[in-house]
Amino acid sequence: MLRCFIVGLHKAVGVLVAPARCGLRHTHSGKSSTLWCSNVRQRQYGLLNGEFASFCFRQKRHTTRRPKRDATKADCSCMTFATADRYNLKELVRDIVKWDSFVVKNLPLEFFDATNIISTSSTWCKNPSFPGEIFIFRNGVISFWNIRGDAVESVLTMSRNHAEDIFPARLVNWESEEMPYIYHQAPTAFKDGKFFLCSDSSQDKLSLDMFALSNALCTSVKLGHWENKLDALISSLDTIPASLIKGQKLKYHTPQAMLRKVGEIQLIRHRVNLQHNLLDIPDTYWDHEDLEKLYLDTSRFLSIGTRVNLVNEKLNYCAHMVELLKTDLHEKRSLRLEVLIVLLISIEVVFEVVHLFIMPRLCNDPEPEVSRLTSKAE
Questions:
Q1: Distance of CA 227 to CAs 175, 272, 299, 314, Å?
Q2: pLDDT at position 74, please?
Q3: Torsion angle of alpha carbons 157, 87, 229, 55, nearest 10°?
Q4: Confidence class of residue 2 from pLDDT cuts 50, 70 and 90?
Q5: Which of 36, 74, 188, 262 fits 180 for a cystine, CB–CB 3.0-4.6 Å?
Q6: pTM score, two decimals?
Q7: Is 234 helix (H, G, I), strand (E, B) or coil?
Q8: CA gyration radius for the chain?
Q9: How far apart are CA 14 and CA 23, in angstroms?
Q10: DSSP category for residue 67
Q11: Which of 160 and 110 is assigned the larger pLDDT?
Q12: Measuring CA to CA, which residue among 297, 294, 317 is closest to residue 305?
């Protein structure tokens, strides 16, 4: 039974860890798909040197290889970052608008989980020829449209003062998205890895288009942080099969450690499938079919559905592994209880033998000796 347990656990970890080690990704081209191992590459988001600036070589983990985004022909770029699990939206917006160059722009009532802030001065815009806007989402994500790097860094730093469950600063820039966009006269659309905004639309309509596109980017970067937590969870379980094969003491050999692992798995599953509900279309697009199309087109490009399904599949493997460990731990505890019961029964048998056979002899032997001494004395 122990051999079957070890073999089953080893196969589960092999399937679970192999894609993470190789940087396995899916490449979609029409109806065909291929697998490839990504190379280590450098990404730079144009921020200034500071807490959120990162110019190191990194390996991107997205499960779908996206087309290269040519930002040289773009008018501006949209950058989206997630710094926490949730914002105190009212307080954060109040601090940002204290700057004289930003004002709040009201969105329709159905977009109550986000706030739109526009720049009234071109000094904060990366390209002064076009307006700059910021979308702040209650779930801890901020999207910047044509905003300078120093302003981006200042807002990200400020957001930490009004956030819950803050993400590590090193991951904020790593788990982010940058998308170039161009103004043209046709309706707003997403194609060829770029946003094409309608220059003939009113400013209100243009802001709603930006919101829909930002919402899809928001979903992608939020999912990226939970993918990172899942990678850490997989790494923590990576040594278990080798420890079982070598007969070493397991890292998670107590019920408390096992429950913590179960909690980590359920937390990621809850955040991805229930709290943020990344697979469903937000209800805010119920009466906005054009915005829903923009959201869906961008989500497909970012492979949101594929990534969520892959996260759930990995979580199932992790849960199966932890369940095997719980079973093994339960059997070991049952074995210890059985040994203890046998030991207690043996002790009871020894006491009974002493009580029935040895004690009577000890009690009866002195009587003849006493009677013999008494007769001699007489």
A1: 9, 10, 16, 10
A2: 65
A3: -20
A4: very low
A5: 74
A6: 0.70
A7: helix
A8: 33
A9: 14
A10: P
A11: 160
A12: 297
Position 2, amino acid:
L
* Cα 21–chain centre separation: 18
24 vs 157, residue with greater confidence: 157
- Residue 73: how many CB atoms within 10 A of its CB? 8
Copy the structure tokens of residue 33: 């798909």
Q: How far apart are CA 297 and CA 102, in angstroms?
A: 30
Beta bridge partners of 117: 104, 134
Contact 318, 263 (CB under 8 A): no
Rounded CA separation 52/174 (Å): 9
- Counting Cβ atoms within 10 Å, is residue 178 exposed (0-12), middle (13-18) or buried (19+)? middle
DSSP 107: P
User: CB 322: neighbour CB atoms within 10 A?
Assistant: 20
Count of CA atoms in the C-beta half-sphere (13 A) of 241: 18
Give the C-alpha distances (Å, rounded to integers) separating 3 from 244, 305, 335: 10, 37, 17
Q: For tokens 């890895």, name the residue.
A: 193
Averaged pLDDT score across all residues of the chain: 76
Do 321 and 12 contact (CB within 8 A), yes or no? yes
Q: Evaluate whether 139 touches 74 at the Cβ level (below 8 Å).
A: no
Give the position of tokens 């144009």: 46
Tokens at 117, concatenated: 């802030």
Token representation of residue 293:
């199309």
Phi-psi region of 83 (alpha: psi -120 to 50; beta: other; left: phi over 0): alpha
Is residue 72 pLDDT above 70, yes or no?
no
pLDDT at site 52: 46
Given pLDDT bands bounded at 50, 70 and 90, which one contains residue 214? very high
Rounded Cα–Cα distance for residues 34 and 18 (Å): 16
pLDDT digits 0-9 by tens, 322-376 = 887 777 777 777 888 888 999 999 998 888 888 887 777 777 755 555 455 455 5
